[in-house]
């Protein structure tokens, strides 16, 4: 005798299995959603800039506990970041290419609160990756010229220039510019009393470059 399949019984079994799967699916959602909401309800946020108040993109922002990284994120094109954290106390570190690591210590994060670390989290340039230009300005008598404006220009490959900084010589005729990066050639121009002189420097690697500028200027004799 050929056995006929019991379609009704099989249907009841399939129905029970589907009910169990739906139940466990709903249960898993009910368990996960509160955790997800909790994870996003507290943390830190802020904006990273350099000493010239320019935003720094792609900064790696890490939260550390006892030296161990527990979570990290990166700043956007405007230097802004948001880092979700559980309530606790963290050291928040900031790392970016060409900058020294910055750290805010003992940052307390409270439940249901995103702590704002501010919009002026300043990072300073790493001196080891900078081009530093220093020098001195003399007159025709080889005496120093004080309070002379000195301009620093980037010299592009097509010969055009872009002004980067302006400083003034000190009482000894010396000057020093803030560090710059990724500039193959610069021009330093000093001026005083309607005359000027320039010096061009190949700056193909990060280091300290020194120059002497001699102005076609007669030395003023004291009265």
Notes on the protein architecture:
- It is a single chain.
- The chain has 223 residues and is mainly β.
- It has 2 domains: 43-123, Immunoglobulin-like (Sandwich), CATH 2.60.40.1120; 127-214, Immunoglobulin-like, CATH 2.60.40.
- Helix content is 15%, strand content 43%.
- The protein has 1 helix and 15 strands.
- The strands form 4 sheets. Strands 1, 4, 7 and 8 form a 4-stranded mixed β-sheet that branches. The chain has a 4-stranded antiparallel β-sheet with strand order 3-2-5-6, with no helix packed on it. A 4-stranded antiparallel β-sheet has the order 11-10-13-14, with no helix packed on it.
- Strand 13 and strand 14 (195-202) form a beta hairpin.
- It is elongated and about 70 Å long.
- The relative contact order is 0.13.
Q: Into which percentage range does the β-strand content fall?
A: 35-45%
Summarize model confidence as the mean pLDDT. 84
CATH topology assignment of the largest domain: Immunoglobulin-like
CATH secondary-structure class of the largest domain? Mainly Beta
Shape: elongated
